[in-house]
Amino acid sequence: MAITIRSLAKIDNRSEFSCGEPALDEWFHRRAGQDERRHLARVFVAVDETPQILGFYSLSSFTVTLSDLPPELARKLPRYDAIPAALIGRLARDRRARGQGVGSLLLADAVRRIIRLSEAIAIFAIVVEAKDEHAATFYESFGFARSAEKSTRLFLPLATAVQAFAP
Q: What fold is seen in the domain 4-165?
């Protein structure tokens, strides 16, 4: 199965997508396009050749405080009020695509896109907000570390991402 990742703007019909998480489905169906138009998020969609939507992720700029970061990362940084980051705000794969590696493909594409972007703007870390423990474990399997303050927020230093995800 050939999978391509496109901008949300190039997707016509989102109504059949269902990941099984009502909040993610509702956001994708009703608000993803609005967030795109308002420049709040960029949304990317994985499709197969039919083109069925297999999953999506969103990217936004973000900042974190030193207290948000795991202590081993925070102690290496200057005491700035805000540290630049990139946020993978939402990531979901369709129920029909379970077990096909779509989640891993989406995450890898998001991280590689952020790495390319980091050549133009400063990004210290990639941040994700896990919906639950299962999602947090998924991100940890790719090297993300939990926040010191919030267990559902995870970080991947950009330097680590470059080593792990560079093409």
A: Aminopeptidase (3.40.630)
Q: Catalytic site residues? A: 139
Q: Which residues of 81-116 are buried (b: 16+ CB within 10 A; e: fewer)?
A: eebbbbbbbbbbbbeebeebebbebbbebbbebbbe
Domain extent listing, the chain: 4-165
Report yes or no on whether pTM surpasses 0.85.
Answer: yes
* Tens-place pLDDT, residues 3-14: 999 999 878 788
**Helices 102-117 and 158-165, axial angle in degrees (round to 10):** 120
Q: Which residue has the tokens 């396009």?
A: 33
Residues in the chain: 167
Classify residue 68 by its DSSP letter.
G
